Amino acid sequence: MASHGPLIKQLLNDLAQDVKGYQQLAMQLKQQHVLLTNRDSAALLSLNQELDRLMATLSTHAKQRVTSMATMGLSQDDQGMQRLFAALPAQLGQQGRQLWQQLHKLTLECQMLNNQNGRQLAHQKQLMDKLLKPEQQYCYGPAL
Questions:
Q1: For the purposes of burial, counting CB atoms within 10 Å of the CB of 133, is it exposed (0-12), middle (13-18) or buried (19 or more)?
Q2: For the stretch 97-107, what's the b/e string if a residue is b when 16 or more beta carbons lie within 10 angstroms of its beta carbon?
Q3: Positive or negative CA dihedral for 42, 47, 53, 55?
Q4: pTM, two decimal places
Q5: 138: phi > 0 → left, psi -120 to 50 → alpha, else beta; which?
Q6: Whether residue 6 has pLDDT greater than 60
Q7: Contact by Cβ (8 Å): 18, 61
Q8: DSSP per-residue letters across 73-134
Q9: 126: burial class by Cβ within 10 Å (0-12, 13-18, 19+)?
Q10: What span, in angstroms and rounded, lies between the C-alpha atoms of 72 and 10?
């Protein structure tokens, strides 16, 4: 692992950046929920563009992480990360484990928030369909 020092340093730096990015994503998903509730389409459009940019950055970091892990001969999963952390000096390994655990918790939180927003959006669509297309509520209605 010693020969991969710069790669490991970059990977740990990216983990720290991803933690910040997912914290920002969680805040934006909470904001998205409020905007969905208030039906503020103009603000939603702007926020969704910000979300797209943030997601692109997080995706790029994830791809770089996979490439770095492969370069070091490690599996590109939790087991590979744990092997990496175990091979590092104690303090650095502990720092990496903490970042990795925090990142995992944040991804789960963001997934939950995103699912919540998706359910709210689906509910709003159902409501709009009922209001705008009342003829579809009944099997037997007048021919149009």
A1: exposed
A2: bebbebbeebb
A3: negative
A4: 0.84
A5: beta
A6: yes
A7: yes
A8: T--SSHHHHHHHHHHS-HHHHHHHHHHHHHHHHHHHHHHHHHHHHHHHHHHHHHHHHHHH-G
A9: exposed
A10: 13
- Chain centroid to CA 67: 19
pLDDT in tens, 8-31: 999 999 999 999 999 999 999 999
Considering only CA atoms, give the Rg of the chain.
22
CA distance 134 to 128: 10
d(CA 54, CA 28): 10
Give the least confident one: 24-28, 95-99, 104-108, 128-132.
128-132
> What is the model's pLDDT at position 79?
96
| Cβ neighbours for 68, distance < 8 A, ≥ 6 positions apart | 7, 10, 11
pLDDT at 2: 59
